[in-house]
Description:
Number of strands: 19
Mean pLDDT: 79
Structural class: alpha+beta
Number of helices: 20
Largest sheet: 6 strands, antiparallel
CATH topology of the largest domain: Rhopdopsin 7-helix transmembrane proteins
Distance between the termini: 77 Å
Shape: elongated
CATH class of the largest domain: Mainly Alpha
Radius of gyration: 39 Å
Amino acid sequence: MKIRWAPFKALSAAVLLGVAGILICVLVVLRGPYLGIAFAPTPEGVGVVVASVSPAHPNAERLAAGTVVEAVRTAAGAEVSLTGQTLLPEPDILPYRALGSFFAQQQRLSNALQARELKALAADGQEVVLIKARRGLADIPALFWAHAVYALLALIICCGIWAFRPDQAGPRWLALSAVGYYLMNMAPAVYSSRELALDAGLFSSLSTLNHLGTALHITSLAGMMWFYPVRLKKRVTLNAMLLLVGGLLVLDWLRIGYSAAYTHYLPMALVFLAGVAAAVRQWALTRHRPAERAALLWILLAVFWATATSTSLLIVPVIFGNDQLLPQHLGFAPLLLMYLGLAAGVSRYRLFELESWWHRSWIWAAVGFLVIVTDLFLVLLVGLDHSRGLLLSVLLAGLIYIPLRQWMLARFLARDDPGMTRTLSRLTGGLIGLRTTQQLHDRLLATLSDMFRPLDIRIDAKPTPRIIVEADAQALRLPHPFRGESIVLVNVAGGMRLVSQRDVDGAGIVLDVFRHAADALQAQVLAAAEERERVIGDLHDDLGAKLLTIVHTTGNGDGRELARSALSDLRAIVGQQREPPRRLVTVVDDIRKEFNHRARLAGLTGQLESVGTLRPVSLSGRMANSLASIAREFVTNALKHARATELTLGVASDDEKLKLSLQDNGQGSPVAGWVEGGGSRSIRRRADEMAAELDFASDARSGTRAVLTLFYDRLPPVDTLRPDASADPDGSLRGSPPRGTKS
Length: 743
């Protein structure tokens, strides 16, 4: 049976295991006697020199910096000589035979440190009795914490990726590489923190664990290239590589051969080259896939730059019988940058099909980690001998920490999800006042976001006939209630849990409500259209007939002309309402022709600017006339008020919107001082009807610019255009006013 974990649980488990491993290593380092002395090898390789002594340690008064210590002796007379190899930070550079002697000396020194009395035999013949104390957290060297930070950050990043994509091979291999990186950091963090010696059995086990981590790290990164971004078909090479690495690990553990240079370091260099070969193959396979090629390039820059740097500094010198060029805690730093680079690539290139919402999932891990760290801090504070430490701990816990801790746990880590109940209780009221299907669609997405709190919501053009639980219960696919597409909710409750049957039932209720709301809106629009058609018919039949009678019966020439004008206006209004749909490109072309004609008649220079391609959409006759009327009023305002010599009509279109603009070079004035007239109110009313946006800018130097932005996704279907949006009763504007005083 397949075990499925919510992403938050998987990420939290990784953080807890990582912190637990670091705590175990801390306890190992703190165990045993502490001399408070930092030793360094001598240039001659005989004895060790005192580099520094902790000022707070009693030995600060017994040994001075610069003293050369050649041996240590116990009260029983057991004497152990000290050499340059005693302080080797990484003993696996030695041949296996010399490595056995090294561990034997470490065991003798470890036994001496456990003795009741220990003397340091200086090169000048002086014998100094060393005092042993207990090591504290402040006495742990900085390189230990550097290794710990490297290990934990890499583990969180990679396990965070794997937690959201557990079914993909690429993230699994990446998570394994982070586990290896964790081991290859924490093992040397312990044995590099020793003053003189460590128990030989523990030291040997840590060295083996270091090799295991290195092999797991490099092999997993190479293995990832077999599966990401494209799965390679032939896995014979990968399987052979895994078997070879496993066999060599056994040889290294048993110390069969000459040295780790040939059973460990050289094979790791070859595995790295195998990963390079897989990357070359990936590069060839993605030549016609620009998205995968971009992701691959980012991975190559991050992974192989870091791995090549660390390999050159730490592995290659040992293969040729030399010391490593840098200490391990510095040589491992490029590998941490690699993992940080992969985390950055999630946002930039959607690595492993993740997006920017992935970074928000770290908030949950950070909160849990903060609670754990604070708990540990208080425990350590209580353990202080000073009485004020206990008092401060109680005050912090009772007055600040416990209330804050409970709030954080309830706010961020609570298991109950009140969003569904709260959203359902106020769902119907939130639909009142919606007039278009676009508004209904936006409210649907907002409702789903508030109800399920997903890390991401995607609209998929592929429809689905029913609600489907996907990606091992990490995603919920919903059929759109009134569009031929589907809605995908990714990681509900911020990734803290998996999709449940309760989520499916709640989503079904929401979809039913919005489906009925869409039906009601459609019925309302159709009813409005029928009523509008009835009113238009009455105007045409009744008022038109009466005006025609006036034209033929009145003897007054002015009255007859006025009646003809009114009849012409009536026919134009009726014609607009019954005019068939028009293509947007035709409407814009007519606007350009009218602009050129009016500019020429006014004696002005008219210029046209076009950017992009108009979308192949149709407008209802009413909306087409509204768009043309707004453009006409823009030109009218410029001719009446601007005193311009040049007009520029701009038409810019992209996938989302159309921008219609008019720029003059006349005498502008601050927009705040404009007074609205009838023409401006007409512009505002028509723009509201089309759900468009207006923007005006004006000053004395550059003239005035008027812009209408029409969003394609807000256009109602040509047969369901909503009724007129009337102006406010008092004639006031909603938003920034258009150009100055108008009639």
